Amino acid sequence: MTAEGPDEATTRVTLEAWLVTDVGVVREHNEDSAHMDPDAGFFIVADGMGGHAAGEVASAMAVETVKTTLEASRTEVEAFRKAPSDAGRRGLVQLLQNAVLSAHQAVFQRGQAEQDKQGMGTTLDVVLVAGAEAFVAHVGDSRTYLVREGRSSQITTDHTVAEVLVIEGKLTIEEAQVSPLRTILVNAIGVSADVGVEMAHVTLKKGDRLLLCSDGLHDYFPVEEEIAQRMSAEKPGEALKEMVELAKTRGGHDNITGVAVHVVEIQEAAIPERVGDDSTQPVDVGGNPFAADEPTQTQLPGASSSSSAPTMPTLKHTQPMRAIDPGTAPTMPPPMGAGKKGKGKGKGKGKGHDDVDVEAPTVQADVDVQAALAKEREKQAARNGEKTDDKPGDGVPSENVGTADTGRVKKD
Do 164 and 196 meet the contact criterion of CB atoms below 8 Å apart? Predict the structure, then answer.
């Protein structure tokens, strides 16, 4: 499908998009939901969780709520396309945040009202393209990637226990990739009363590709170079179909959903303004493979760079997007605390990160993290010795923490 910005707009953008979803080879139901509207410039992927098909309900509700909110705000989006401004940029950030928070409230309230829906929730990734700018809202461990000139960069961060421990230096990247803690969400739509919304901003270029996907897809493509290679193909839609089929042949232990977006053309008449200083202070969060291209600007709710070492803060309300210096790494996961269990999802992926200082966590892992970490250390020691409990030929690590149930691929 193709979408073009209005002729009178400051920046005219042509988009093509494709959506592919599959139940996989293990699940009986597809709990993923997705929607794309290239004409309106927004794309959504949600990965539901919960028994009695409640995951299907949660993801569908989240997608429908965001879709309805964005469709009702076309005038605001069009106004920004015609005349990009700092105020308009902040308005679109707030629009996306409100859409996600509305989805969260809808799912949470239904889960509270219906016995068989209690504890249901979903991840949620939303991309809104307005002119030559893309605004990303993210909750959970579905992902959004930017592929540019044959290189791939993960814009979002997995909101998992393992990722938090990687940030704190308590797990190595290699440990996190096989740890059961990578399957425990610390942030999701609808599970607890509060949720944190991670925001990112991307300045698009002609030829860029965006990939929104559930973990059923990205789990089987742990090397970003392979994602870049496949998504850089001449026909991204066909490439996405091939990736879904490959995910199935590589295990297919979860539902598989992807939305690919191709920026076919950008005709710019003016350079958009940067985010103003009156919102927040810039945050430096590490290196980015697109350092010279200024692809992303990212914010976690209430993030701060005031302290010298990562802490274990909490999430509650979201704030306007922070400006980040050109070429910085995309994002940083929210922290973890004690609370309800998340669906078995996510994995650690070390990146350059700054500190965070925010309030009250959302879906938190109901596990003794130190005990689980000690167990992981014992397993690591066993793997380094002569004795090991790993089963030969088993491509799926044991998932013995919380309600981990997605069946992740062991990373070599």
Answer: no
